[in-house]
């Protein structure tokens, strides 16, 4: 199953928890997290509320007494360990709370082991984070996408005083995500919501292809007269007959004062930094100088590190970036037998129909070296094997 997050009203931990519980049709995973970690001191209440005329589910986490503060990362990890959930849920929960701790650590300039959480409630945060991942596992979600995330605007009061929105921890956590600012002048995305979305690593896309199964509505605590403070989650069943699409980033730079050797090293460094593709094109620049245009395709989460590579490993003074929508073939691999050994073949299908296939060069090269024949000989043998009727 695939989950798409409509972030026009931002996201908080309790909004995500509420919307997921509506998709799942149960709050049992949340209640199990609360009882196993905190015992009878903590309970869950669920209600339907109106937000600017739209219905949403509201989840409140009720604590008898404020006896469970969350001071630092080690304390948070101990709480997660106590939860009665599968190890996969614990692992994702640890990743999320660690991302939040790392953000706080960078903001305050202290080692992560000395960092104290200032902006979160211990019980709410643990139940939100672990409960979200428990519900995702219950729903068997395997992939994620999202629209731009609305962080809000204006100012918000934190432990260190009044700061602009997004709050420092939130800003750190959404640094690699597509964001926007609209609606009421208030905080719409919280640090807990941001660390959960960052851990899910969704693909930025308007709406994915697939069969829409259900919509979950999670209400925020704030109610605005003319703004629906509701998070919508779309649950999809993606099928093999659907085309595959995503959104990627294109980085470009023009260079006219370097050498071929340095360009080669630049390409290696870009691929090492997880570029999807790198191309060089000859161009003419100002003052009739021949130059090279460098184009890099990447995912949003690696965009900043690749920009750093372009500045550190080339002589460019500027890097352009743009978001691109990409349609992809469904990719799979098969193996064919040749007189020179087994060769791996990449296949691409669209709408369930085989569109293209090609022997993998590295596989052909390995077989060629083992048999002491030219690579093209193995390549042609693999092509012939593909043309043979299957038995």
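Sequence proposed for the structure above (391 residues):
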């Amino acid at each position: 199953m695939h989950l798409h997050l409509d972030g026009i009203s931002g996201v908080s931990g309790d909004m995500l928890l509420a919307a997921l519980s509506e998709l799942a049709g149960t709050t049992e995973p949340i209640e199990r997290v609360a009882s196993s970690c905190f015992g009878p001191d903590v309970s869950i209440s669920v209600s339907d509320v109106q937000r600017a005329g739209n219905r949403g589910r509201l989840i409140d986490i009720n604590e008898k007494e404020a006896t469970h503060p969350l001071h630092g990362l080690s304390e948070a990890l101990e709480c997660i360990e106590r939860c009665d959930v599968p190890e996969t849920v614990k692992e994702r929960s640890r990743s999320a709370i660690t991302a939040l701790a790392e953000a706080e650590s960078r903001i305050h300039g202290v080692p992560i082991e000395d960092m104290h959480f200032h902006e979160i409630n211990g019980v709410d945060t643990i139940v939100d984070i672990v409960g979200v991942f428990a519900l995702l596992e219950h729903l068997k979600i395997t992939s994620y996408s999202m629209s731009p995330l609305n962080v809000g605007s204006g100012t918000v009061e934190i432990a260190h005083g009044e700061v602009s929105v997004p709050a420092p921890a939130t800003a750190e956590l959404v640094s690699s995500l597509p964001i926007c600012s609209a609606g009421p002048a208030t905080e719409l995305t919280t640090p807990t919501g941001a660390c959960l979305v960052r851990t899910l690593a969704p693909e930025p896309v308007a709406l994915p292809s697939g069969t829409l199964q259900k919509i979950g509505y999670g209400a925020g605590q704030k109610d605005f007269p003319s703004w629906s403070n509701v998070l919508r989650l779309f649950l999809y069943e993606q099928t093999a007959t659907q085309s595959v699409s995503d959104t990627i980033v294109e980085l470009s730079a023009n260079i006219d004062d370097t050498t071929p050797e340095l360009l080669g090293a630049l390409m290696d460094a870009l691929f090492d930094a997880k570029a999807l593709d790198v191309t060089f094109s000859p161009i003419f620049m100002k003052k009739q100088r021949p130059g090279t245009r460098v184009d890099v395709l990447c995912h949003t989460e690696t965009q900043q590190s690749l920009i750093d590579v372009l500045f550190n490993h080339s002589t460019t003074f500027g890097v352009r970036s743009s978001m691109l929508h990409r349609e992809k073939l469904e990719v799979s691999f098969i193996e064919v037998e040749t007189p020179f050994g087994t060769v791996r073949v990449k296949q691409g299908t669209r709408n369930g129909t085989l569109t293209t296939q090609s022997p993998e060069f590295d596989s052909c090269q390995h077989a060629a070296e083992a048999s002491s024949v030219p690579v093209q000989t193995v390549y042609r043998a693999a092509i012939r094997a593909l043309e043979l009727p299957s038995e």
